Amino acid sequence: MQIYKVGGAVRDRLLGIPVTDIDWVVVGATTEEMLAKGFRPVGADFPVFLHPKSGEEYALARTERKSGRGYGGFTFHASPEVTLEEDLIRRDLTINAMAEDDQQNLTDPYHGQQDLEDRLLRHVSPAFAEDPLRVLRVARFAARYAGLGFTVAPQTLELMRQLADSGELQALTAERSWKEISRALMEDQPQIFIEVLRECGALKVLMPEVDALFGVPQPEAHHPEIDTGVHTLSVLQQCALHKLPLAVRWACLLHDLGKGLTPTEEWPRHIAHEHTGLKLIKAVNERFKAPKDCQELALLVGQYHTHGHRALELKPSTLLELLQSFDVYRRPQRFEEFIAACEMDARGRKGLEQRSYPQADYLRGAAAAARGVAVQPLLEQGFKGPELGEAIKRERLKALKAYKETASI
């Protein structure tokens, strides 16, 4: 039995960046031997075990063969005869196909170390094209390591194009796709993820609504970058720079989908794009089964982001409707995320990345004014049921009118 550290832990150590997850592969062992040493089995499809003390994952060396469509369409074979090189060749990228023993002796049959030095994301073997999930994984790695100068090798990009054209991407489950998308959006340069997917043709398969934004012009006075797709990428980049949470990044990716439906004769204006985009946002949410908080914020940002930009001009009654829509009384954090998304939308424009956004503090002040209305005095006046609701609404409106007057002085 020989045990090797493999994959990301080896890659990141060689890159000199913190190692978070460690995976191990065991060569020359049987399931019975692993159980005898106290390892706990967890793998349903192939033998994976948890270490009795550390809890880290140890997998028996295995080979795989394509047997169906999609990410799960593989038959695995694990036995003591499977070599380390045979195990490594089934991996996606050369930089993930290295192993080291307990003395840090490197096994690198597919030249991953050289590709690390050359800053290349390159596939290990032609079998790369058998797994459609790898299109998303490579795009995610491109987003993660773009800051270090990594790019996708041309031959690998070509295989990704073949996968995008093959129809295999449609066989991916929503859960697997979302796992990769959500992780990619939380990388330091999430816009690179979208760029790579677009470059290989996968974006128009997975998110045609986002792909449709490229080439759609906007008024240059508000959007010096003009192109709606380019603007969306810039907004994502701002999200990462400001270290915003996943729900905000997801909402920012989808906020302008309605502009992809504007008739060309109406360009560069996009009247009511907030409303027309809602059905598209809903479709993308459902396609990837995004978590509820991501779905809700994406729809709210899509519908109300222009309200956010025009906050200083809104009538108190419109401001109250906006606050009610977000349920700022019970869910203040969601409104904060909306404000953040609006600010990123404002900053994600060529040359305007450092612009101030006074709307943010104005909206926070409005929310505080509305929340400051006390309910107890109204109860003491005898209001109850629907009448109480109307009385609270009147008092909140009064508070917002006073706030607006004070804020504008």
Describe this structure in words.
The protein is an alpha+beta fold and about 400 residues long. Among the domains are: about 1-110, Beta Polymerase, domain 2 (2-Layer Sandwich), CATH 3.30.460.10; about 250-370, no CATH class; about 370-409. The protein has 20 helices and 11 strands. It has helices spanning about 10-15, 30-35, 85-90, 110-120, 135-145, 155-165, 175-185, 190-200, 205, 210, 230-240, 245-255, 275, 280-285, 290-310, 315-325, 330-345, 360-370, 375-380, 385-409; strands at about 1-5, 25, 40, 50, 55-60, 60-65, 75-80, 100, 105, 120, 150. The strands form 3 sheets. The chain has a 7-stranded mixed beta sheet with strand order 3-4-5-2-1-8-9. Strand 6 and strand 7 form a beta hairpin. Helix 11 packs antiparallel against helix 12 (about 245-255), helix 11 (about 230-240) packs across helix 17 and helix 14 (about 280-285) runs antiparallel to helix 15 (about 290-310). The longest helix has 24 residues, at about 385-409. The chain is elongated and about 80 Å long. The model has no long low-confidence stretch (mean pLDDT about 95).
